[in-house]
Amino acid sequence: MTSPATEPLKFAYWVPNVSGGLVVSKIEQRTDWSYDYNKKLAQLAEKNGFEYALSQVRYIASYGAAYQHESTSFSLALLLATERLKVIAAVHPGLWQPGVLAKWLATADHISGGRAAVNVVSGWFKDEFTKLGEPWLEHGERYRRSEEFIRYLREIWTSDAAELNGDFYRLHDFDLKPKPLASEGRPHPEIFQGGNSSDAKGMAGRVSDWYFANGNTPEGLAAQIKDVNAVAGPLGRRVRFGINGFIVARDTEKEARDTVREIIDKADREAVEGFGSAVKQAGQSTGDKTGMWQDSTFEDLVQYNDGFRTGLIGTPEQVAERIVELKRAGADLILGGFLHYLEDVEYFGQRVLPLVRELEAQQLEPVA
Ligand SMILES: Cc1cc2nc3c(=O)[nH]c(=O)nc-3n(C[C@H](O)[C@H](O)[C@H](O)COP(=O)(O)O)c2cc1C
Q1: Hey, what long-range contacts does 93-98 have (CB within 8 A, 24 or more apart)?
Q2: Residue nearest atom 17 of ligand 1, based on CA coordinates
Q3: Atom of ligand 1 nearest to the CA of 292
Q4: Scanning 67, 102, 295, 339, which has its CA 20 to 30 A from the CA of 315?
Q5: What is the pLDDT along the chain (368 residues), one digit of tens a residue?
Q6: Luciferase-like domain location, by residue (predicted)?
Q7: Closest-lying ligand 1 atom to the alpha carbon of residue 242
Q8: Residue of 17, 33, 124 best suited for mutating to test ligand 1, as the one with most atoms within 8 Å of CB
Q9: Helix/strand/coil for 251
Q10: Hey, which of 224, 292, 333, 335 would you mutate to test ligand 1's pocket, going by the most ligand atoms within 8 Å of its Cβ?
């Protein structure tokens, strides 16, 4: 098995399948949530070095996203419009019966030639559940349910007589046919998870393939990776790590910084503050008060996954340097959000990615 340091970094982008763009701001965002725009974007992204696309799951408005396309159906539509792109559908345990989802993913996997993946999110948006008439579990219980949900998916995808006797879910002698497509090192659709609390880190160490971090510094990421690996290591598991970052790469550093300044100056204050109070159900509601948005400022919340904190803002050289710094901290994947998606994804692929590959190659050269 190759070590993370030698594997090229992977890149994913946030699918804008909800309205309002990736920043809660009244600045002009040449981004659209329509399928036609997203189809063009997905095809452009896979041509510009993006291996993954991550959809958002949102059922009611928050962070300025007044309209939302459903995550799984939209993900399948993007799989059908592309050839190599792996599309990660986001789902909430508590709103999906895992057997039904396992079947959906198996079908999407066959239709796409093995490119379906899932992001299991344990939730922060209480109103969304209660307005759907579903109970809102406290933080720890949401993660106990998510962990059973993931064990359920693994069991039903890999056993011809699947059994599970959990507190939330049960399986009895179940034979899912067809199983998802399996390949070298990919026994079934990859299982990602979002969340940075102690509950989330424990779950990732025990059952997930990928751990997604909200925007953070290389040091902040390294600390989370250490915690997850403290659980995964003794179990002989290797978890991979992705980090969110809002990417503003421009010809000059001044132009990039001015763009971020303008985004924040034109922030939709009401929407950001509304979001700020809703996310108190995440990390802040846990015993040790750690997790997503645990200490996000107003400015951080303008990019609703703390994407400014990752510091992918500057010239192509500066952004590439920062990306390789995150790799040294243990990142296997960078999850990017953009202001003007079509232009920025192409600029990233043409101007930033080649520099990242050069720096990665230099890192592998034996020290003379
Ligand atoms: C990269 C990433 C993507 C996420 N996507 C979603 C999403 O689409 N919908 C959602 O409700 N939560 C999403 N979440 C948040 C999760 O629901 C998370 O479990 C919740 O915020 C609690 O986080 P905590 O464990 O840090 O407290 C995402 C988190 C990350 C890091």
Answers
A1: 93/120, 93/122, 93/142, 93/145, 93/146, 93/148, 93/149, 93/168, 94/123, 94/129, 94/134, 94/135, 94/137, 94/142, 94/145, 95/59, 95/129, 95/132, 95/134, 98/149, 98/152, 98/153, 98/156, 98/169
A2: 123
A3: 26
A4: 295
A5: 455 567 999 999 999 999 999 999 999 999 999 999 999 999 999 999 999 999 999 999 988 899 999 999 999 999 999 999 999 999 999 999 999 999 999 999 999 999 999 999 999 999 999 999 999 999 999 999 999 999 999 999 999 999 999 999 999 999 999 999 999 999 999 999 999 999 999 999 999 999 999 999 999 999 999 999 999 999 999 999 999 999 999 999 999 999 999 999 999 999 999 999 999 888 889 989 999 999 999 999 999 999 999 999 999 999 999 999 999 999 999 999 999 999 999 999 999 999 999 999 998 777 66
A6: 11-332
A7: 1
A8: 124
A9: coil
A10: 292
- DSSP-based three-state secondary structure for 195: coil
For the domain with range 10-363, which CATH number is right: 3.20.20.30, 3.90.230.10, 3.40.50.720, 2.40.50.100? 3.20.20.30
Residue with CA nearest ligand 1 atom 4? 194
Q: How far does residue 195's CA lie from ligand 1's centre (Å)?
A: 5
Q: How far is the CA of 367 from the centre of ligand 1 (A)?
A: 41
Cα(322) to centroid(ligand 1), Å: 24
